[in-house]
Specification:
Blueprint (H helix, E strand, L loop, with lengths): L24 E2 L4 E9 L3 E8 L4 E8 L7 H11 L13 E9 L2 E8 L11 H10 L22 H7 L1
Antiparallel strand pairs: 1-2, 2-3, 3-4, 4-6, 5-6
């Protein structure tokens, strides 16, 4: 199993990242943290259970000092794209968004559908398992790795390997 390195602890300061623990809840108890999915230059990403829909989602918590344009861009793409157009299935769906007040400031939070594994964290065994699972359509250059709209057949054990 691959374990990604953790983000530097120095990022957890005023204006920085929000400290999260398994079992923490967000947005009036709607989202419960189940697992860490990863981190980026200015955010951490968590697997959460949505108590309203009883489904999993990913929760991106952005550093307090960062301005987020991702939400506006994804909302624009969702509002203006034609769902019948090629490639539209590759637009990430924003399920919810809110601001969370924490010890390090106010954090923009984006709730999105859970996507597939990160290729940056894959080793050769993971890539082989992914390929052996069978990608049914890569003609457009980017297989959709969404469980509810999958154009690929990625076995569940492959998804867990990259987390």
């Amino acid at each position: 199993m691959y374990f990604a390195p953790a983000e530097p602890l120095l990022r957890y300061k005023s204006g920085g990242l929000h400290p999260v623990h398994f079992g923490d809840t967000f947005h009036n108890g709607r989202y419960t943290v189940v697992h860490k999915l990863g981190y980026g230059a200015s955010s951490t990403i968590w697997l959460v259970n949505d108590a309203q829909t009883n489904t999993f989602a990913s929760l991106k918590i952005v550093a307090a000092s960062k301005t987020v344009t991702e939400l506006a861009i994804l909302q624009h793409l969702t509002a203006t794209h034609d769902p019948m157009e090629d490639g539209s299935q590759h637009v990430v769906q924003i399920l919810d968004h809110f601001v969370h007040e924490g010890p390090n400031g106010r954090h923009q939070c984006l709730v999105q559908e859970v996507l597939g594994p990160s290729f940056s964290g894959c080793n050769m065994e993971t890539l082989y398992d992914f390929w052996a699972g069978g990608i049914s359509s890569i003609g457009d250059g980017a297989p959709a790795l969404r469980p509810n709209r999958a154009r690929s057949r990625v076995p569940a054990q492959t998804w867990r390997l990259a987390w």
